[in-house]
Design brief:
By secondary structure, the protein is of the alpha+beta class. It contains 5 helices and 22 strands. The strands form 5 sheets. Strands 9, 10, 11, 12, 13, 14 and 15 form a 7-stranded antiparallel β-sheet that branches. A 6-stranded mixed β-sheet has the order 1-5-6-4-2-3, with helices on one face. Helix 2 packs across helix 3. It is globular, with a radius of gyration of 21 Å. The termini are far apart.
């Protein structure tokens, strides 16, 4: 019986050795042990009960609270202290022999999320808590061979199914850093651009998995998976009798918001002064009832509105927000959807007529 219990626990752990965030070749690449979403289960109502272990220092607790805050500000997940007698909870622990280690999903009893050594920081704990919430490694997706080469021969498991038909995210907090043993296949994504802080797509995937409502209820959906009902619910901007949709696509390693045509499946985005057309983009839907997305004029003080909708990210991880404006080019004019960089809130970059246009009077997409 004890042997069977050990096997059960082993297959529900995500194991990272002390070199997990700086590994080099196959012998150091931790194998994913995630076996599928729901091996144990989701946390009811997106509430995760936790307890601070006595092994934590005050500095450790401060880092864990920073990790909690990432989820609290970007998702509907809430970490709440365990009440006396509550059976299901995550023990947050310092374990010197690991970089990070966590049970995957809610087990119904004691489970842990650990960090240790030089890894006792908020970024590592965000990653481990991602496992607690039921997420495995991004590089363990079933479609990861489309995005990564493993020249050292150890692919580390291929067992994630939830994300299929959603964009692969090299900058996910759940992605290991890329190096000679994990090489990106996509152009303009270098080994220094894999893994990072909690990304825009991380937040979206958590919100989708936990069915978050309200201003967290919008969803980007693969054009291949859009249903007839969702087409009717897509956010639109009307221009000369045509419905324009908010879409996004991969270009030069960036995930860029742009203007979509749902009938053709085309998504028009811009970067480096040029417009690019894609047919494998994602389209924005309102998703959950109660999600009210509207267009709002850019603030006079040139700041990103607190309720602005994040539509993508640069290859370096900078958030890209959704904007629209009227663009005139070549004797034609059109309402166009594009991007605003978090570091350049004064200007929108919009695709139209083969070019990228810099527009200083525009509207942000916001949630009210």
């Amino acid at each position: 019986m004890k042997f069977l219990i050990f096997i059960f626990l082993y297959w529900n752990l995500e194991i990272h050795n002390v070199n997990a965030y700086n590994f080099t070749c196959s012998s150091e690449l931790p194998k994913s042990t995630q076996r599928n979403f729901g091996t144990w289960g989701k946390w009811p109502n997106a509430i995760v009960k936790y307890e601070f272990h006595s092994s934590l220092t005050s500095a450790d607790i401060a880092e864990v609270n920073k990790a909690f805050n990432v989820y609290h500000t970007k998702t509907c997940v809430r970490f709440q202290k365990r009440a006396s007698g509550e059976a299901a909870y995550v023990s947050i622990e310092n374990e010197p022999s690991v970089c990070g280690l966590a049970h995957v999903c809610r087990g119904g009893g004691y489970q842990f999320a650990q960090f240790g050594g030089s890894c006792r920081n908020a970024g590592v704990m965000v990653h481990e808590l991602g496992h607690s919430l039921c997420f495995g490694h991004e590089q363990s997706r079933e479609d990861r061979d489309n995005y990564l080469n493993y020249p050292c021969g150890d692919a580390g498991g291929k067992d994630m199914g939830f994300d299929i038909n959603l964009f692969y995210d090299y900058k996910s907090a759940m992605h290991y850093g890329c190096n000679d043993c994990m090489r990106p296949k996509m152009a303009d994504v270098s080994t220094s651009m894999c893994g990072g802080d909690f990304s825009v797509l991380d937040a979206e995937k958590v919100n989708a998995f936990y069915d978050c409502p309200g201003c967290l209820g919008y969803r980007f959906r693969s054009v291949l998976k859009i249903t007839a009902a969702e087409k009717a619910d897509l956010l639109v901007a009307r221009d000369t009798g045509e419905f324009l949709y908010v879409c996004r696509a991969y270009q030069n390693g960036d995930i860029i918001p742009g203007t979509g045509n749902i009938n053709s499946g085309k998504c028009y985005v811009s970067i480096h002064a040029l417009e690019h057309v894609h047919t494998n983009g994602e389209f924005l839907t309102k998703g959950k009832s109660g999600t009210r997305l509207v267009w709002s004029q850019k603030p006079s003080n040139n700041v990103i509105p607190s309720n602005a909708v994040a539509g993508g990210r640069s290859r370096m991880g900078e958030t890209l927000y959704i904007a629209r404006a009227n663009v005139v080019s070549g004797g034609r004019s059109s309402v166009v959807v594009g991007k605003v960089h978090a570091g350049r809130p004064d200007v929108a970059f919009l695709p139209f007529d083969g070019k990228e246009h810099e527009i200083y009077s525009f509207e942000f997409l916001v949630c009210n």
